Amino acid sequence: MKKIALHWQILIAIAISVPFGIFFYDAAPSIKWVGDIFIRALKMIAIPIVFSSLVMGVSSLGGYKDLGRLAGKTFSFYVLTTALAATVGIIAVNIFKPGVGADLNLSQNVSDIEVTSLSFKDQLISIVPENFFEDLSKGNLLPVIFFAILFGYFITKASDDNKKILSGFFDAAFEVFMKMTLFIVKFTPIGVFAIVSNIVAEQQGDTTRLYSIISSLGLYTLVVWGGCIIHGAIVLPSLVYGFTKLNPYKHIRQMSVPLLTAF
User: Does the global pTM surpass 0.85?
Assistant: First the structure.
């Protein structure tokens, strides 16, 4: 039999987990640990693969000019797509006003909440790690990324022998981390089933409340989906064609597997 692709396995797991959580809500907590292990495994591999891939990528660029040009293009494209996505979202929300009047039974009387805020200057300062290993252990991504870029860049400044050793080491490390990631991802359908079924089961079998929440969030969900479809099917393909003159929908078809997996 032809093996079912991973993204279809994930979607099937989601479809099965909802009725399982509704009708077998007493049994769902007994598999919660499966979802917990899956999430912890993803967190375990995230920082190592980001660090090793960035060091490997930056060290292969060859110099400051190449790094600066790549960073400038990446940042500009990120800002542009984020601004366009925010514009689509703001327009959709102001037209349809999703969630207005919805009662999700989430209101609580709370007190003694510690509120903290960081200024833009403080956020910039926090990107530079005081203790790289502490940020690495806590999973603080931005300081890790900053250090990885610096480390990768200065590998290009090392002697040829050391450059070869360090580049080879991080190439090998990245390959190992990728193999670990692909192994973990194979268990995604099982992890997703455990997570979603427990979220549904937390309603304690109160299907009326569950349906009420679904109906209250229905318009909100449709607006979010509609905004994502507009951004993904119109805005981003327009950018692909504008910058590359390639057929954007052929590009999307070739990316169908990672896009469905991400969804």
Answer: no
Q: How far is CA 52 from CA 42, 47, 189, 224, 260, in A?
A: 16, 9, 27, 34, 26
Show the low-confidence residues of the chain (pLDDT under 50).
Answer: 1
Identity of the amino acid at 67: L
In the chain, which ranges are E strands? none
- Which H, E and C letters describe 180-203, residue by residue? HHHHHHCCHHHHHHHHHHHHHHCC
CA distance 62 to 72: 16
For residue 233, the tally of other CB atoms under 10 A from its CB is 13
Query: Which amino acid is present at 98?
Result: P
Residues in contact with 167: Cβ distance below 8 Å, sequence separation at least 6, in sequence order: 56, 59, 60, 155
Nearest to 194 by CA among 28, 6, 26, 41: 28
Structure tokens at 187: 């268990």
Asked if 18 and 196 touch (Cβ cutoff 8 Å), the reply is: yes
Q: Is the dihedral of CA 106, 33, 17, 256 positive or negative?
A: positive
Give the other-Cβ count within 10 Å of 9's Cβ. 18
Q: pLDDT > 70: what percent of the chain?
A: 86
Whole-number Cα distances in Å, 93 to 1, 36, 85, 164, 217: 46, 34, 12, 53, 14
Helix (H, G, I), strand (E, B) or coil at 98: coil
Q: Which of 230, 226, 227 is nearest to 89 (CA)?
A: 227
Q: How far apart are CA 197 and CA 192, in angstroms?
A: 8
What per-residue confidence (pLDDT) applies to 188? 92
Cβ pair 210, 22 in contact under 8 A: yes
